[in-house]
Amino acid sequence: MKKIIHKIKVYPKVEKLYEPFYQKRRVAIYARVSTSSDEQLNSIEAQRDYYLKYVEERSDLIFVKLYADEGITGTSQKMRVEFQKMMSDAKAGAFDLIITKSISRFARNTVDSLICIRLLKEYGIEVYFQKEDIGTFDSKGEFMITLLSSMAQEESRSISENV
């Protein structure tokens, strides 16, 4: 039997042929303070300024909108008008990512927090909690969010009892 040798043409790596497709992620920022004291209102301004600068410095992000609830508890989403607007805009596809300071700023009710996070995931939107360095698209994210949301809920309950 005669040995057959096939010549295989070598092509350059794909990376050299095409530039990778790259699209900036559209970012919404959510901030919340639980009282309307001057100190707390300054905190919301500080959060706004910090995250606007944070997004501006990142080449992969583009700022879309800030949602800020002032003087409203995080134990229920019903009274948080800006949070409700954010969820509505999320459903409409207005942004790809929500950045917030911490889980306790997003919600202090474990069930509400998980329902909203799962709904946002269905819309293809990630939530990033900066203090905890957790993103909801991370494989361990939901477990950690459940645990930390429970702690935030308990902290809120404890604060209410002490007042």
Task: Using brief descriptors, characterize the structure shown.
163 residues; alpha/beta; Rossmann fold; five-stranded mixed beta sheet; 6 helices; 5 strands; 18% strand
Can you characterise this structure?
The chain is α/β, with parallel strands linked by helices and 163 residues long. It has one domain: Resolvase, N-terminal catalytic domain (Rossmann fold), CATH 3.40.50. 45% of the residues lie in helices and 18% in strands. The protein is built from 6 helices and 5 strands. The longest helix is centred in the last third of the chain and has 22 residues, at 141-162.
Blueprint (SSEs and pairs):
Layout: H1 14-17, E1 25-33, H2 38-57, E2 61-70, H3 81-91, E3 97-100, H4 103-106, H5 110-122, E4 126-129, E5 134-135, H6 141-162
Parallel strand pairs: 1-2, 1-3, 3-4
Antiparallel strand pairs: 4-5
Describe, in short, the structure shown.
Helices cover 45% and strands 18% of the residues. It has 163 residues and is an alpha/beta fold.
Beta-strand percentage range: 15-25%
Structural class computed from helices and strand pairing: alpha/beta
What is the fold-level CATH name, i.e. the topology?
Answer: Rossmann fold
What is the class in the CATH system?
A: Alpha Beta
**Low-confidence parts:** 11-19
Second-tier CATH architecture: 3-Layer(aba) Sandwich
Helix content: 40-55%
Radius of gyration: 22 Å
Average the pLDDT over all residues and give the rounded result: 80
Overall strand count: 5
CATH H-level homologous superfamily name: Resolvase, N-terminal catalytic domain
What's the SSE pattern? HEHEHEHHEEH
Work out the helix count. 6
What strand line-up does the widest sheet have? 2-1-3-4-5
- In this structure, how is the largest beta sheet organized? 5 strands, mixed
What coarse outline follows from CA principal-axis ratios?
elongated
State the end-to-end distance: 93 Å
